[in-house]
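Practice problem: predict the structure.
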Amino acid sequence: MRKVLVLEPLVPTYYLEKDYLKPVGRFGEENTAAGHDLGAILSNLSALGITHILECAYMGNDFRLPAQRSGLILVQEREGQRIYRVSPAPY
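Answer:
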């Protein structure tokens, strides 16, 4: 399965056209065995079926991921938003 990993708890996900995984959300989402451990989630992207990551610097928060991270390709960046493609993509 192909999913988008959404890192910002306050970003609404109802508009996404792909399945998503949101380990920390406004309503306490915790959909992985890794819980809120971002490092463990990032280490398991292929097993989780993650193909893209949506990251937002929302309400004065900083980005959680560095712009250059091994295994992630920055495909779009706008003010306060980044979208990464996971490489290699899970099959």
